[in-house]
Amino acid sequence: MRASIVPLLALMGACASGPSSSSGDSVDGANSRDYVGKDAHVDFATLQFIDDAERQRFERARTCFSERGNDWEHDPLRRVGAFVEEDWCRGEGAQRGCSGGNFMKRQGVDKAGVGTLHYTDRWPEVFGVQVNATHRPRTEGWNVSVSVSTNGKTILGDQGSVSFGRPGKPDEKFYVGTSYGYTIAESSFDLNVDGDGWALLDRIRVSPQALRDEALPRWDALKTKVVTALEAGQVLECVYGEYEGKGIPPTCIERVPLSPKAVQEEVAKIEGRVRAIHTAFETDAEGLHAALLAVAPTDCF
User: Fold this and answer.
1) Is 90 exceeded by the pLDDT of residue 111?
2) Residue 28, burial from CB neighbour count under 10 angstroms (0-12, 13-18, 19+)
3) pTM of the model
């Protein structure tokens, strides 16, 4: 368990040390880097939040991340389409921008970001808030990625999600969120949770047990929905027509139930996935919770 916690202490200390003296608007050092929105920097003071609570949430996260990432690469506050966002990152490839290429798929990287939204004809009025943070240790511990978005209106859906995984073990990846989904062939299964992403974080940060009690019943319920549909012959797959060339995918001409063999395989797959999530909490619930708190402390999210 110590191996899961020790690499995160630097992250926990960064936000606990107090707000940064920097406004975060400086672009010193960023002009030599290439990143999306480089030619559209924004002064935070110009933003007109339509909701003061959202402004406070945005500013709290921005202050925390500015302190956490005071020696990281920095993509300053800028307009990117309908988004107004700011990012901090470190690790291999960070010098080429926090969102470029396969940066977030590498181990040994960290990223934090905050954003809001706008309609072009109402600029500089802004609405909604998005906060995200990721820690991917090089070898030991848990990968953790936290993302919350609210009040996205017609631009961005509201959501909250915390993803966990281990370096080099893709089969152990799972998430806790405001919604859960699972897809087999042409059939999709969904499970929605009451409350927004901020409420989710408030619940799961209380204790390792609270995190476990949020995750396991949701995954068990989703598994039940999937297995019930599979055993009732309600999961469908496509029968495709002939491929006619020119890069055009063949047409789905008929949807039919899965074969008995495919049903058995899919039941085993969903049961194995949920069993692995149970095992993660049985063996390292405290490590999972510590990883979450290090990446998403209350003074950032």
Assistant:
1) yes
2) exposed
3) 0.86
